[in-house]
Design brief:
500 residues, 75% helix, mainly alpha
Length: 500
């Protein structure tokens, strides 16, 4: 009986735990250190619940459905834990847990604000709910929670440009929210439901409704902004450069995957008949993003800004996999997304750790050039491993993702796209090695006196995972392959939610 009850409530735990923790953490605001450790503990419990949820769903081979208030589908709020949702949930919760661990050892003044940890837990709540919700309107609600908490966390940054970056992020997200609300309205008027399973069934039954193309276009625009896809990317570099390191590491690694998740749902569940057109657009945007992001990263003069442009390029690789749409390509996209989240979070933490040790706290190359000669050797080793992973070089997990992606491209006979992304992949190695050489090899402009900086435990754990998942990639690859197989059977998702 106890196991049955636990299984029944598992889908809600990754949402309710950080939400409840955020409220309790606010009452601990007078005891900042206790508030931080409490928040980390709550995030640890939420991560554990995500692991249990993944194990349960994977073993059961069917989605777990949670009906809020026991209202029947499609009238009530429903959470659907299928293999795609729980895989991305585990990815985000793992990175969020390590982000809180980094915050506990960071020197930023904003970390000591009473609202920092409650907002961080609300960010985790919104992201978890967005992956698990089975309803388009509730996707909007959870996405707004991510936006509001992310905006405030950036606005309180120590960086003087934090408020400006927060405004840019907020207003761009406001545009995305308008697109999403319009899409919700268009689809509801056309089909009378917003439950994704019910909506998918009705669209398959009546694919010629006059407002359907508008709904598809609006959803695509929404997810392009969310994942900073070219040409909706221009808010991202300023935002991630000015945000506190613990926050930018989350936003550039896992929050942008919300858009990737949306594209996967669109092409494999909601708009299966329209998927070829959507996928063709994603391939083009992905290739352009890879080239533009790589060239922009080479031309920038700030390590954090370089990594922000790198996200634009790396998301491009994922979109190409989603666009090719074969089972192997979808598995490659999922592996790439999971691995990129670990690498990018770790690299931004390392950039923040370098900036925290600089005479003036900044990741600008003009300040940190030559600083590496006085930094811990561990920091150099971690940065080098992260550079290899971003470039897709063994024995890191980045190699596994790119290898699967190129194999899927060969299988799909996408020769032009393969050639373009193959040549553009070299750009990643160019800008990461350029940054490494400037920080550790070039002589400093003057005397180097580094300060005490952020602790390296969180990025060390992330880079350890990067190597482990590169050397022993079989579990993640198998999980991604099984997830791809689930995505190829939308009827199973629909039946699990609607019954019958």
């Amino acid at each position: 009986m106890m196991n049955e009850v636990l299984t029944e409530i598992l889908p809600i735990l990754p949402v309710i735990l950080p939400l409840t923790g955020a409220m309790v953490a606010w009452f601990l605001r007078r005891w900042q250190r206790s508030q931080g450790w409490f928040s980390l503990g709550v995030m640890g419990l939420s991560l554990l619940s995500s692991v249990l949820l993944l194990a349960t769903v994977w073993q059961a081979e069917t989605p777990l459905v949670y009906l809020a208030g026991d209202w029947p589908v499609p009238y009530g709020i429903v959470l659907v834990a299928d293999l795609l949702a729980v895989t991305l949930l585990l990815m985000s919760q793992l990175v969020l847990f390590l982000g809180l661990l980094y915050a506990l050892g960071a020197k930023d003044r904003c970390i000591r604000y009473p609202s920092f940890y409650p907002l961080f837990l609300l960010l985790a709540t919104g992201l978890s709910g967005a992956f698990l919700t089975g309803d388009l309107f509730n996707l909007y609600v959870f996405a707004e929670l991510v936006v509001i908490s992310g905006t405030v966390l950036t606005a309180i940054s120590d960086d003087r440009y934090g408020t400006e970056a927060a405004y840019k992020y907020f207003y761009m997200s406001l545009v995305a929210s308008a697109f999403l609300l319009l899409a919700v309205g268009v689809l509801y008027v056309s089909y009378g439901t917003l439950n994704m399973a019910d909506l998918a069934a009705r669209i398959a039954d009546k694919p010629d409704m006059p407002l359907l193309p508008a709904g598809v276009a609006l959803l695509m625009a929404t997810f392009m902004v969310k994942s900073a896809v070219f040409p909706f990317h221009f808010w991202q570099p300023d935002f991630h450069t000015a945000a506190p390191t613990a926050v930018s590491a989350m936003l550039s690694s896992v929050v942008v995957k919300l858009g990737v998740y949306g594209f996967l749902r669109m092409t494999t569940l909601l708009f299966v008949a329209q998927a070829p057109t959507i996928q063709a657009v994603l391939v083009v945007l992905g290739v352009v993003g890879i080239i533009f992001g790589g060239l922009s990263a080479i031309g920038t003069h700030n390590a954090k800004r370089m990594l922000a442009y790198s996200t634009l390029a790396q998301v491009g690789f994922i979109l190409v996999g989603v666009g090719w749409g074969t089972p192997l390509a979808l598995a490659a996209a999922i592996v790439f997304a999971f691995n990129h989240s670990l690498v990018k979070a770790g690299m931004l933490m390392l950039a923040g750790a370098i900036a925290s040790r600089a005479p003036v706290k900044t990741a600008a190359f003009e300040v940190v050039t030559g600083l590496g000669k006085a930094l811990p050797v561990l920091l150099a080793l971690l940065f080098f491993v992260g550079s290899l992973a971003l470039s897709g070089i063994p024995p890191t997990n980045g190699f596994i993702g790119k290898l699967l992606l190129f194999e899927s491209g060969i299988g799909a006979e996408q020769w032009l796209a393969l050639a373009l992304i193959g040549v553009s992949s070299v750009l990643t190695l160019v800008y990461t090695m350029r940054a490494f050489m400037r920080i550790w090899w070039q002589p400093p402009a003057g005397e180097v006196k580094p300060k005490a900086g952020d602790q390296l435990l969180a990025p060390s754990l992330l880079m350890l995972l990067v190597v482990v998942l590169g050397v022993y990639a079989e579990p993640l690859v198998r999980l991604a392959s099984d997830t791809s197989a689930w995505l190829g059977n939308p009827a199973g998702y629909i039946q699990a939610v609607l019954g019958g």
